[in-house]
């Protein structure tokens, strides 16, 4: 991200700016719009949401006058508004992904199937796509990345999301030639696989967040998905199904990630993991076999080795997304993408006893949660990827609480875009 600020300033001084299209004016989208309004060389020129009022309110809170906000679903009217330096509010997602004036599209919906549709349409319209939707990425990201490359555009996850923040630590350490032992993140709350929107409702109200979203954090699904994204980007794998979930301080991390034969708690190296006690930070455990490097690390108060921890104590979620937008547009580079293909899989597990004929619901809902496996383990078990779960998926047999739901246990009442893309991906790779 070196010199992005200067590149954006140069762009603005030349009388130009990156024109961003956004889908989703929830908490993440609102923050991103306001942040970008404070930046040079960039603007969110069109935003789509099911509730158009969410969009207009987001623009107004960002300091944009109501007279400069155009509500329309018409492409020609939207183009005229953008060319007149206005911004557009719409319910029409495809208007965002197809509008000629848009350079980069951001998906901030968090809904896997919708995210897959947005990414697919954006790439077909030759637009860079930034995914604030790790659930879609871990399900069909390898295919979307390949399609984007063949179309000459960038497919990327977002800076500020934990996977993007971890990837920055990885790239830093890898460029310097360190051995990278483990990559991980802190978890904000104790793991409770039974969490659902009802159990999370009071805390969600207190925090001003969605009960469904909070439940997806509490039941571990978001953590599994985020580390799945890191696995597909780096080739690192969970040390055991579902990861360990150690409780530790930052200072304790180097010893934890020694192998068991050396007094540590893990079975190998190049692993992804989550830690209770260090949220909202992310980390990389690094090592070196060079005597002089270890002496220098000790002098720099990085510890006694052989493992050292690189720790970033914050991630600014969608407020950092503009950096990925700029990197894609100006440098034609991704912040994080599934460079290694499908290395891990977040599979679907029954949150309670489920009956034949029952519809599955959604991530953070009442019926299922996510559990990370190595991709080969998931394939051997015929496990259903969590990103394929939605209201159109119906059980064809009973499934007990805690059991992995398999492909042959479900049927779709209506085939979704993400199922079609996943079928294409499975054939392609």
TrEMBL record:
Specify the Aspartate/homoserine dehydrogenase NAD-binding domain's residue ranges.
24-152
- May I ask which residue range the UniProt record assigns to the signal sequence? none
Q: Which Gene3D superfamilies match?
A: NAD(P)-binding Rossmann-like Domain (3.40.50.720)
Pfam name, any one: NAD_binding_3
Q: Enumerate the spans annotated as Oxidoreductase DRL-like catalytic domain.
A: 160-321
The name this protein carries in UniProt is NAD(P)-binding domain-containing protein
Species source reads: Oceanobacillus jeddahense
């Amino acid at each position: 991200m070196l010199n992005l600020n200067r590149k954006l300033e140069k762009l603005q001084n030349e009388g130009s700016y990156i024109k961003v299209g956004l889908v989703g004016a929830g908490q993440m989208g609102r923050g991103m719009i306001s942040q970008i309004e404070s930046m040079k060389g960039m603007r969110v020129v069109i935003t789509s949401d099911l509730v158009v009022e969410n969009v207009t309110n987001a623009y107004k809170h960002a300091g944009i006058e109501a007279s400069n906000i155009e509500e329309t679903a018409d492409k020609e009217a939207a183009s005229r508004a953008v060319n007149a330096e206005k911004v557009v509010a719409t319910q029409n997602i495809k208007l965002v992904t197809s509008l000629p004036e848009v350079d980069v599209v951001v998906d901030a919906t968090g809904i896997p199937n919708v995210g897959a549709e947005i990414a697919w349409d954006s790439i077909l319209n030759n637009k860079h796509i930034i995914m604030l939707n790790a659930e879609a990425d871990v399900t069909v990201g390898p295919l979307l990345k390949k399609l984007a490359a063949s179309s000459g555009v960038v497919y990327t996850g977002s800076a500020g999301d934990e996977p993007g923040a971890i990837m920055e630590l990885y790239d830093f350490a890898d460029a310097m030639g360190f051995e990278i032992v483990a990559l991980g993140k802190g978890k904000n709350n104790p793991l409770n696989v039974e969490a659902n929107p009802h159990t999370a409702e009071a805390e969600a109200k207190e925090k001003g967040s969605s009960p469904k979203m909070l439940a997806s954090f509490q039941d571990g699904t978001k953590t599994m998905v985020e580390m799945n994204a890191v696995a597909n980007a780096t080739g690192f794998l969970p040390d055991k199904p579902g990861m360990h979930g150690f409780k530790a301080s930052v200072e304790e991390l180097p010893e934890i990630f020694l192998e068991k034969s050396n007094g540590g708690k893990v079975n190998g190296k190049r692993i992804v993991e989550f830690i209770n006690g260090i949220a909202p930070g992310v980390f990389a455990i690094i090592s070196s076999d060079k005597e002089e490097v270890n002496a220098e690390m000790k002098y720099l108060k990085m510890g006694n080795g052989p493992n050292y921890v690189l720790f970033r104590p914050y991630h600014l979620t969608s407020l950092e997304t503009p950096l990925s937008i700029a990197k894609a547009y100006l440098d034609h580079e991704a912040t994080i993408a599934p460079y290694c293909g499908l290395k891990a899989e977040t599979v679907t597990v029954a949150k309670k006893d489920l009956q034949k004929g029952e519809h599955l619901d959604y991530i953070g809902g009442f019926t299922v949660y996510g559990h990370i496996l190595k991709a080969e383990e998931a394939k051997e078990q015929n496990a259903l990827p969590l990103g394929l779960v939605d209201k159109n998926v119906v059980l064809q047999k009973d499934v007990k609480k805690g059991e992995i739901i398999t492909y042959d246990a479900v049927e779709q009442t209506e085939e979704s875009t993400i199922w079609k893309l996943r079928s294409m991906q499975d054939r392609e790779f």
